[in-house]
Amino acid sequence: MPLALLALAVSAFGIGTTEFVMMGLLPNVADDLGTSVPTAGYLVSAYALGVVFGAPLLTALGARIPRKRMLILLMAVFTVGNLASALAPNFGLLVAARVLAGLPHGAFFGVGSVVAARLVGEGRQARAVSMMFLGLTVANIVGVPAATLLGQHLGWRATFLVVAAIGLAAMAALARLIPELPPEQGGGLAKELRALGGRQVLLGLLTTVFGFAGVFAVYSYLSAMAVEVTGFSETSVTFVLALFGTGMTLGVLAAGPLTDRAPRPTLYGALAGLAAVLVVFDLTVHVKWAALVTVVLLGAAGSMTSTPLQMLIMNKAKAAPTLAAASNHSAFNLANAGGAWLGGVAIAAGWGWTSPTLVGAALAVVGLAIAVLAGALDRGETSRVVTGAHLEHVPQHQDAQTAGHTRAH
Predict the structure, then answer these.
(1) Which of 241, 220, 239 is nearest to 137 (CA)?
(2) Which of 144, 210, 211, 393 counts the most CB atoms within 10 A of its CB?
């Protein structure tokens, strides 16, 4: 694999760290800025809001900017957003800084996915994209726990200063390792928007929203379940979350080569496995060792959906894949918000701390149904194209034969 993928992975590591670290720092931020923990929770939503709106906006604005320069500019916005978070004097400005930090998230992964795929030959593109996503999953194992620990001991502002430093390092790596790549030929906003409106692309985005919402319905309350139901101490929660991140890493590593061989079967298997693991977790969450094993499997099944979804959406967007790939990360964040909300609704309705597992399983099944529908429609479209081409070819062949016989006589 090209060394340039390391620069994309380092960038993804920084993005993943800043995305999830706020969840562990909410009490510290709330205490320092004189607000409540639930109010501080808006900082998580603020970042997600930045991702949802920033992905299509920044991708559209940078449609004609060379890919290497675009990646560096996006990481520059990311770095400024995290530096502003570290220096924010009050809660309102911290919310604004979190939105700014989230703006380049989806656009970076959209452009980065296209760049990663262009760096390698046919048959290895999914593995290249998964290498970039690997930085995101490693952030959940190393970056988030370390950054949380740093924030708890040196103050939450120190965490965002370190993340800003990672952003600077990522910019240097991108400048040094990424080759000069021009924008896609014939690209532009109009073509990107047309590609985004394709039926297969829209079905892919819907699959992301529902399928990945199943993950976040549980992940959002995993810490609470580990303490309230499984019986872990609060100090052990970091270990539980690190196991989830380990599962995510294993899932991404497996998804790359599997997607290169068979993208749709990989997606079907991942979503079906996710639904099954979530149902099983409803039972195993009561036993410590079984819960830990299931957490790893949950992380693996959830992350295995990301690479095939990204590749299918990029492939179906054809010559204008960047906006579609970026919009997929908006869909991931909608899944984050929607899954967390539905899991919370189930708990608030009195169904118990474990109820998000079954809510998540139902969402994963919906995502699987949409994916299967998309596959069936795709096969039908392909069949019509092949049949049409055959029908057009046969008369031409017969005409050629007839003409040949006429000339012979």
Answers:
(1) 241
(2) 211
